[in-house]
Amino acid sequence: MSEAYIVGAVRTPVGKRGGSLAGVHSADLGGHALTALMQRTGVDPGAVDDVILGCCDTIGSQAGDVARTAWLVAGLPEHVPGVTIDRQCGSSQQAVHFAAQAVLSGTADLVVAGGVQNMSAIPISAAMAVGTQFGFTTPFAESPGWQARYGDQEVSQFRAAEMIAEKWGLSRERMEEFAYASHQRALAAIDAGYFEREIAPVGQFTTDEGPRRGTTLEKMAGLAPLREGGRLTAALASQISDAASAMLLASPRAVEEHGLTPRARVHHLSVLADDPIWMLTGPIPATRRALARAGLSVDDIDLFEVNEAFASVVLAWAAEVGADLSRVNVNGGAIALGHPIGATGTRLMTSLLHELERRGGRYGLQVMCEGGGQANVTILERL
């Protein structure tokens, strides 16, 4: 049986909205991560079979297949192709899945997977906004097929996060405690230098900008809710951010031919979907099925990365799958570190790999909620 090995993983620091990366062209931002990946692995970039990058809102600087453009602006070989994919928040995690599947099938030996997103330059849902110029509203409104199946219900991540908080009985105070812990964990990791090995500085920008040293539970309690009468506030949601990240996946043949050292193998990969109106509950059934298919239990997993789109998402997931929160997002999550949508999947996986190595853990599981009610799950086995 073939294997898909991870031989390299790198990311830029995550910039906050309007911060250090706001003025960086998306292709150059992605190209920076690709250059760093090639340099750190020592692989001849001409041997790469394909480049797969996740990106959402592919307009402006992110249009025209940014994966291909990022590779070219980095000065890398013209004969290497690139493709950009969109599975919403899980786009770059899906890029890893496609890369691993290519390697496992024997149709490729070296594949780059990653993602890029400059949310300061291209705001979230910008592609939908552009569509209004052509008479369209959203992907759901005015579709007879959608209306026949789901009616005219509001399709919103904010509504879904509130629905989850209500269904699972998550108080605002409980969610604020979780969000505060995310910031404290991220700051502790930064201060201890845990992220330094995985980050490729962009000029003088070396450190994630999102974590707030001055935040307190009292400050969080003073924020207005995102929706009238709701429990969720900006402090309980992921931050709008800018970043790029990339990983190199290799076959056993490529490992031997290029003298590479596998750092982990893709033990399991899958994707599952749930109700698109609830939207953010997909990680629960997706995790259960992934563990069953992998022949593992929650207790077998040393570390979890569960994207903190909202505090309610992670807390409901933990309650349902029985995961110990002390092993979940141990160095902070998107509430503190940010959520550069297209890049987050491989940002999380890069951090997960490095933390498994630091702790000497064996298995790491990553899952993300995604638009349309979807959820990717990846289980890594550190080697």
Write the topology of this structure:
Blueprint lengths: L4 E7 L3 E2 L9 H16 L8 E5 L11 H8 L8 E4 L5 H15 L4 E9 L7 H6 L12 H7 L6 H11 L4 H21 L24 H5 L19 E10 L1 H7 L5 E10 L9 H12 L8 E4 L4 H11 L12 H4 L3 H19 L3 E8 L3 E9 L1
Parallel strand pairs: 3-4, 3-5, 8-9
Antiparallel strand pairs: 1-6, 1-7, 2-6, 5-6, 7-10, 9-10
Helix pairs in contact: 1-2, 3-13, 6-11, 10-11
Radius of gyration in whole Å, from Cα?
20 Å
Cα shape = globular
Question: What is the strand tally?
Answer: 10
Q: Main β-sheet, in a few words? A: 10 strands, mixed
Key traits:
single chain; 383 residues; alpha/beta; ten-stranded mixed β-sheet; 37% helix; globular
Structural account:
Keywords: Acyltransferase, Transferase. The chain has 383 residues and is an alpha/beta fold. 37% of the residues lie in helices and 18% in strands. It has 13 helices and ten strands. Strands 1, 2, 3, 4, 5, 6, 7, 8, 9 and 10 form a ten-stranded mixed sheet that branches. The longest helix is centred in the middle third of the chain and has 21 residues, at 172-192. It starts with a strand and ends with a strand. The model has no long low-confidence stretch (mean pLDDT 96).
Summarize, please:
Strands 1, 2, 3, 4, 5, 6, 7, 8, 9 and 10 form a ten-stranded mixed sheet that branches. Helix content is 37%, strand content 18%.
